[in-house]
């Protein structure tokens, strides 16, 4: 040790700053989830995927409005609000595959859960805040383009802006309800997969693979198999439940659906969505209860 070295005893000084409540702790987790999912305050490459998907969503909206403006008379069958979900739900699926694992995996892998769990925050509060971050992000992802589309079509309507809005008031509840069905189905499965894996990229890939494989296998069994009870394979076409529910809400038929081919009513898909959310929540909760 150097002869000039000195030991300075500054004494123990407890934290004397403002102490937040449970609500402020949960809100801090939600804000951190926004920053992590959108790559804010991170390197440029972290922003490419989330903001690229957001740009694609807005671009599709602007293309639909532009076509309605310049060629609305030549193309009368422009995508409706229900069909617009078909155009954008695959982007929503990719956005969930990206953000779901990012919200859960890094905290667990980096060992910071013990810091979060200091009072007054509990594990249930932590998971509730993460869920709130995912749901609010996804609602923004779905509803902002739909709002722009709604206002754009109203501005182009021959009946006038406010007449169009008044004639389509049902859209104000149908679009959010359907968006929540997509978010509940996709988000709960993404969280369930992420709860067991230690790498965000691996969780994203397995989540997408699980959704695609179950959809294709269910469709193949319903179409080809002849054994008794084959139609129940349609219940495992997880990606199609929110789409069937959407057709039920809007009273449309936007395309071929496995559940419809198997002869199930749309309310069965609503029951499946509730069951998926309940089962995924139970799986995540049990997995996180085991953590030290």
Task: Give the SSE map.
Blueprint: H1 22-38, H2 45-71, H3 81-109, H4 113-116, H5 123-156, H6 161-167, H7 171-194, H8 200-224, H9 241-250, H10 258-261, H11 266-289
Summarize the structure in short.
The chain has helices at 22-38, 45-71, 81-109, 113-116, 123-156, 161-167, 171-194, 200-224, 241-250, 258-261, 266-289. It is mainly alpha-helical and 292 residues long.
3D structure, described in words:
This protein is mostly helical. It is 70% helix and 0% strand. It is built from eleven helices and no strands. The protein has helices at 22-38, 45-71, 81-109, 113-116, 123-156, 161-167, 171-194, 200-224, 241-250, 258-261, 266-289. The longest helix has 34 residues, at 123-156. The radius of gyration is 23 Å and the shape is globular. The two termini are 40 Å apart.
């Amino acid at each position: 040790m150097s002869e000039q070295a000195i030991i300075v005893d500054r004494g123990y000084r407890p934290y004397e700053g403002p102490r937040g409540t449970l609500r402020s702790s949960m809100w801090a987790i939600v804000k951190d989830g926004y920053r992590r999912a959108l790559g804010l305050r991170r390197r440029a490459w972290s922003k490419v995927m989330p903001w690229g998907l957001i740009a694609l969503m807005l671009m599709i909206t602007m293309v639909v409005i532009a076509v309605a403006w310049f060629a609305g008379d030549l193309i009368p069958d422009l995508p409706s609000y229900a069909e617009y979900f078909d155009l954008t739900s695959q982007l929503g699926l990719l956005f969930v595959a990206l953000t779901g694992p990012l919200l859960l995996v890094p905290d667990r892998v980096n060992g910071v859960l013990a810091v979060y769990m200091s009072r007054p925050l509990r594990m249930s509060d932590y998971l509730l805040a993460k869920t709130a971050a995912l749901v609010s992000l996804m609602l923004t992802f779905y509803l902002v383009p739909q709002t722009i589309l709604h206002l754009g079509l109203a501005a182009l309507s021959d009946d006038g802006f406010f007449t169009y809005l008044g004639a389509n008031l049902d859209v104000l509840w149908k679009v959010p309800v359907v968006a929540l069905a997509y978010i509940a189905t996709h988000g709960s499965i993404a969280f369930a997969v992420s709860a067991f894996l230690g790498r965000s990229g691996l969780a994203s890939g397995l989540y997408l693979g699980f959704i695609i494989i179950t959809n294709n296998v269910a469709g193949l069994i319903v179409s080809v198999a002849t054994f008794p009870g084959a139609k129940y394979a349609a219940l495992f076409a997880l990606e199609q439940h929110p789409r069937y529910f959407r057709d039920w809400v809007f009273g449309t038929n936007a395309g071929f659906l496995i559940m419809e081919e198997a002869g199930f009513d749309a309310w069965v898909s609503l029951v499946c969505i509730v069951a998926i959310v309940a089962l995924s929540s139970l799986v995540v909760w049990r997995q996180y209860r085991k953590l030290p």
